[in-house]
Specification:
Largest sheet: 6 strands, mixed
Number of helices: 12
Radius of gyration: 32 Å
CATH architecture of the largest domain: 3-Layer(aba) Sandwich
CATH class of the largest domain: Alpha Beta
Strand content: 25-35%
Length: about 450
């Protein structure tokens, strides 16, 4: 395969520097004008010779995994082999990629020579910033000769994709795995006595037991104290509801809020499935977008993972009234609804409060929002100018409105989790286990 020979940037600089010399020659020695075109021809011959010494491309390949997780580096590599190539600058590859992989839509890598297999290798590690399918659309490969004056280049249309999944690193963490192995909702599903609300058996009362567990009727029949042993509730329904509107698409620590919420929800759902409960996902924006069936086995956890990967980003205001009414109609029994959302204006917050109030009448609601550290920093900044003062006052007003909304939700009986993004997952697990132990869902 033949590739055209192109002048490089170095050639352009030489031509630009030679232009003033040519003008000086033409002005001072008109009879020597023939030197100028001769020099230009010589430069072009050098470009052609250098491009020929650049060698012939034998093969090339773009290497990448089929799947990766949002927020985690993904290895994107390239391999190229050349025949008859003299030593020169390293070949360079430019890829046109989806903005999920690179904000600019462009990924570049410089290849380095490997003596092991007599080929050139390159690798970069972009960090995906959104879930979905990221395409790699086109590739440009350029390699130059030893003088750096002539280069060859190929352009090739690619049809390659990388599926970007939610971040599951908290589930794989040793801390959570050890917890699941040792905790009451461990890897082996077993009956838990002494907690919960479902009656299991009677046992003789011993000092130190909770006196509220004494069964007075049984104790009267046997003329000795007996205590009730309850089994921890199982098969509860838990719905993780996601606001996919524009506020949840705003980034926090480099990733959209909804991606932080999805990671926390999948971590908590994994713990819930280990505990014998059933989990489902619900997503909405201007209208309901997705409702999964309930999953009751960790072997089907991938269904929740796949559904969470499909939660899209919507630059629109969420319709809480329609979404939560649709969710209520879809549920046949009392459930724990964990709502991930955020709010920026008082009008939208008022509609949200009304909708959550109707939801609380039939279900147990846990409201999860990511703490806005940036807003707190702006409110606490020491004003050095009128503009700084205006920003601080506005931020403080928004923070106060936010606190009022959360307080109104608490007064309605809604549990609130407001924490930094890296803590909401563990806070959510703790709240879920507390609710489960209290038997408040059933």
């Amino acid at each position: 395969m033949n590739f055209p020979i192109l002048p490089t940037g170095r050639t352009a600089w030489l031509a630009a520097l030679a232009a003033p010399v040519a003008i000086v020659v033409a002005a001072t020695a008109p009879g020597a004008w023939v030197i100028v075109p001769a020099a230009a021809v010589s430069l072009m011959l050098l470009v052609m010779l250098d491009g020929t010494l650049a060698g012939r491309l034998v093969s090339w390949r773009i290497i990448h995994p089929a799947d990766c997780e949002v927020g985690e580096p993904v290895k994107l590599g390239a391999l190229a082999e050349f025949a008859g190539r003299a030593s020169g600058s390293a070949p360079k590859i430019v890829l046109q990629v989806d903005t999920r992989l690179a904000d600019t839509g462009c990924a570049q890598m410089q290849l380095a020579y490997s003596t092991d297999d007599d080929s050139w290798h390159g690798e970069i590690e972009p960090v995906p910033t959104r879930r979905g399918t990221a395409s790699i659309d086109q590739m440009w490969l350029r390699w130059s000769g030893p003088l750096g004056l002539g280069a060859r280049q190929i352009t090739h249309v690619l049809d390659q994709e990388i599926r970007i999944w939610p971040d599951l690193s908290p589930i794989r963490s040793p801390e959570l795995q050890n917890y699941l192995r040792d905790a009451q909702f461990g890897l082996i599903a077993r009956r838990i006595r002494g907690e919960g609300t479902q009656f299991e058996a009677l046992s003789e009362y011993h000092p130190g037991m909770d006196r509220r567990r004494i069964d007075w009727k049984a104790s009267a029949r046997h003329t000795k104290l007996f205590a009730r042993e309850n089994e921890s509730e199982r098969n509860n329904q838990i719905v993780f509801a996601f606001d996919c509107g524009h506020a949840m698409c705003e980034p926090v620590a480099g990733l959209p809020r909804i991606d932080r919420a999805v990671t926390a929800a999948l971590t908590a759902s994994y713990v819930a499935l280990k505990g014998g409960d059933r989990a489902a996902l619900f997503g909405f924006a201007r209208r309901p977008k997705m409702m999964t069936p309930f999953v009751g086995d960790t072997r089907a956890f991938y269904q929740l993972q796949s559904a969470a990967a499909g939660l899209d980003y919507h630059a629109e205001e969420p319709n809480f009234t329609l979404a939560l009414a649709s969710l209520t109609a879809a549920l046949q029994r009392r459930s724990l609804i964990i709502l991930f959302t955020d709010f920026t204006d008082s009008t939208g917050a008022e509609m949200m409060i009304e909708s959550v109030g109707r939801l609380v009448e039939k279900h147990l609601v846990l409201f999860v929002t990511i703490e806005d550290a940036e807003l707190a920093d702006m409110a606490d900044i020491e004003p050095g100018s009128v503009d700084d003062l205006a920003v601080a006052v506005t931020a403080d007003t928004l923070a106060r409105q936010r606190a009022i909304v959360l307080q109104r939700l608490r007064q309605m009986g809604v549990d609130i989790i407001e924490a930094p993004w890296d803590q909401i997952g563990y806070r959510l697990i703790d709240s879920y286990l507390d609710i489960k132990r209290s038997g408040a869902i059933g």
